Amino acid sequence: MKSTKNRYSANSCRQDSNSETNEEENGELCPGFKDVDAFVKYGLGAVLSATKASAGLPQAGDEYDFYRSFPGFQEFCESQGDGLLHCMSQIMQHHGCRSHVRDQNKLTGLEERFDLVVDSNDVILERAGILLDEADGVNRNQQPVMPAGFQPPKIVVSSWNRKGPGSGSRSETFRLLHAKNVTRPQLKFKERIDNSNTPFIPKIFIKPNARKPLPAYFTNKQIRKERPEDLDVPAALADLIHQQRTQEHVDDMFAHPYQYELDHLSTQEKLLSKPEPQMYKPMAETKFSFIDSLEDLVALNEKLCKLSEFAVDLEHHSYRSFLGLTCLMQISTREEDFIIDTLELRSEMYILNEAFTDPSIVKVFHGADSDIEWLQRDFGLYVVNLFDTHQASRALNLARHSLDHLLKHFCSVDSDKRYQLADWRIRPLPDEMVQYARTDTHYLLYIYDCVKVQLLDFNHSQPGLLQSVWNKSKDISLKKYVKPIYTEESYLELQRKQKKSLNTQQLTAFRLLFAWRDKLARQEDESTGFVLPTHMMNKISEELPKEPQGIIACCNPVPPLVRQQVNELHLLVQQAREMPLLKAEIAAQKTKGLTPIKKPEVMLFGPHDTSRVSESDLLHLSPGELPVKQGMLFSEDEHKMDIDVQKTSGLLAPAKITLFQEVETKDAQKSLSVAQMKARQITESFQNPFRMYLPSKDVHVNKNAKFDPSSKIFEISKRWKLQSIEQQQKEMEAKKKAKEEAKEQARKATEERNKAKQSYQESLQNVVTVRQQAAESAKSGGKKRERVDGEVGELTPKPSKKLMKSAEKPQKTEATPQESFKPFDYSQSDLKVFAGTKSKDSTQFDPNRQDEGFKKKKFPKGQKNNSAAGNRSMSFLAGKSDRGFRHNWPKR
Ligand code: AMP
Ligand code: MN
Ligand code: ZN
């Protein structure tokens, strides 16, 4: 089965083939020029000298009028002017534009002539654009393969859907059928999609063909259906509920629901014997049903349960969804073809488990790896007794293992895989796509027969090889769907694949962009490739554009969400640019010439007159030699200068007034005590009153722009905007910090309360059972929607209420920080419960554990604890932070 991981990686390399071949064919592009470059160079040179010459002409006003008093000059001007107009008129005619520039009668004046020239320029430029597009392989006239009645889709040619060599001349590339205006099927899903950064929990709640019953976790509707995050309770309580539930069931939750059945499945004797291949019916003579109602689905299930084998395939869409959507299920029996609209019947598909998990029915797939995962993820469907023809093809050592190859090999059917990457969300499903989808399963049972025969023949009728295929297939059906989990390290994994070394700033940008993209993709339920394709993310990280416009320039075409959030992205890039570079990196950049030192006139803005430092003084100094140490106000701290040299190029230095000094690195923060942190936070909340006079670090002014007053004004206004954005961000951060502090106080109070509870628990031996009873009654009593205190009260036996009251005291004294302000040593806390290992003794209610749940929240969002981000982590933090969007999602 082909990997779907690189789906979006390469849709920018549109131009590869076409533009290059053009040149080679023609030999000489224009007479006298060996290639486009030579022609362009010449053309630009000509234009430049013409521009220069025209600028050198006597100016209208005094000079011109003076010269014009000489008849020779006048004559010369007129003849030259006429010649020019003639030339222009010819060019315009050549391009089919209005061309009466020279006809005095038809023109009222210079203005109209000017308009004519402008119009013609537009026409010519437009034409040049079209031709360039064509050369790039974007042919605007050619209609892509698309079912009748659909809008011409955007053509995206990407490397992974390109046909290999020898595929014939029919079509060099596949086209991704990307219909516009497809309504998002997610909108009508009965169950909201869970894009939260928490591990996937199986969807199954009824287990047909069970030899081992489904664990209570899945059958208890109360638990299943009332997700704590959907309850109308405060976040802390939702987390508590969630944690309690998951602790009890952690083993069940992540196990394969049919593990036991699959482990005990042995291949039936008859499945290892040589069959008589049963020829498929011609497709035209085969009954076909499109199933999009529950009634039909139930009937289909009945039918399937009576068979001994059927073939299955899925079609999937992954571009406009975070996790992906299964759009179709094709099923073929020996007699009939079915296509199920799985977008429509998504919540009902589970009923097919009756046939799918029946060990006496063989389910034939081709390349089932992804299908097995999609079935679990979207429908809670599992397969018991799978036969994968792809595995058979491998065992037989066939030339290729794709379905088209098997179709060709066994059925002499030429399949057209062009629709494989069509937008399978399209409804009603066009006939062409129905045909294509049917082909994927129609022949599969016959192929199943054939490969079985061959596998036995291959092995002198010994069942060993065939058995190995059954085993491999079983392994595939044991696969578990794993949700993509974002961790602090995820970006590194992707970055390593890029095979490009990035410096500290670039890597920071990559990390920040990666996090932004992941968050937005989950929130908007879009693929990360839709939000920001990796190659664009790379480009932005490498170039670190100084302006929002630069970010846009890194993206072609610009993804809609990038356009929408370009300011946020710009702030991220800015943040990355502020990272200190390692000395080696600075040196490397210098040798590469990547960091031209900014010129002072670019840098400076404000009331201080710095003009006495001339441009030439600075230009040729290396960063280390910049005159940073001038002036009493400037710091002499060497280390700090290393950091800042890059971006300040000389005149900006950290202020001596340390109150307004920027925070240092994160590492430094770690070693601070809580009290020191607090002090720092207060200090940080001060705004440097001189800030407005400091040169902004990010605004780049084009050298020529300084002559253009309007552009200067533009830059200035933009700079102020950026500064105000920065300031707003700072303020937001300060607010966030304040909030976090408040939370910490609350947490401490809870901690106290829990300590009290624990000591109470120790004094009561039977407390666990009482607690459990209480919890049990709480579960069945349907009182989940009660407020925090009510919930806690329920879980706690009566006598503790008194204790609780006393324990609440610290909460009341919150206002007096001296009392409650006790630095907490997090290194001592046991965070194992959030880590990968399943805790064995997790069935008991343990107030300390619950406590840890609260502790975890202590970590500010930005610096999530790594151990909590492990694959198996039940990161409530993420769940919680996602809750905000869950409630009002989807927004469209
Ligand atoms: P298939 O099993 O060939 O019908 O493919 C099932 C689904 O997998 C298709 O609907 C596509 O969404 C996806 N798919 C198949 N091949 C590729 C590929 N080469 N690249 C990306 N996605 C693919
Ligand atoms: Mn498939
Ligand atoms: Zn298919």
Protein described:
Residues 1-27, 728-892 are annotated as: Disordered. This is Exosome complex component 10. Residues 728-755, 838-854 have a biased composition (Basic and acidic residues). Helix content is 49%, strand content 4%. It is mainly α and 892 residues long. A 6-stranded mixed β-sheet has the order 1-4-3-2-5-6, sandwiched between helices. Strand 2 (309-317) and strand 3 (325-332) form a beta hairpin. Helix 18 packs across helix 19 and helix 19 (504-524) runs antiparallel to helix 24. The structure holds adenosine monophosphate (AMP), manganese (II) ion (MN) and zinc ion.
Write a compact overview of the structure shown.
Helices cover 49% and strands 4% of the residues.
Topology overview:
Elements: H1 16-26, H2 36-56, H3 62-68, H4 71-94, H5 110-135, H6 216-219, H7 221-225, H8 235-254, H9 259-263, E1 287-291, H10 294-305, E2 309-317, E3 325-332, E4 336-341, H11 353-356, E5 362-365, H12 369-379, E6 386-388, H13 389-395, H14 403-411, H15 431-442, H16 444-458, H17 464-477, H18 490-497, H19 504-524, H20 528-531, H21 534-543, H22 548-553, H23 560-564, H24 566-577, H25 583-592, H26 600-603, H27 615-619, H28 638-648, H29 666-670, H30 674-685, H31 709-763, H32 767-781, H33 788-795, H34 800-812, H35 817-820, H36 847-857, H37 876-887
Parallel strand pairs: 1-4, 2-5, 5-6
Antiparallel strand pairs: 2-3, 3-4
Helix pairs in contact: 8-37, 13-16, 14-16, 18-19, 19-21, 19-24, 31-34, 31-36
The structure holds adenosine monophosphate, manganese (II) ion (MN) and zinc ion.
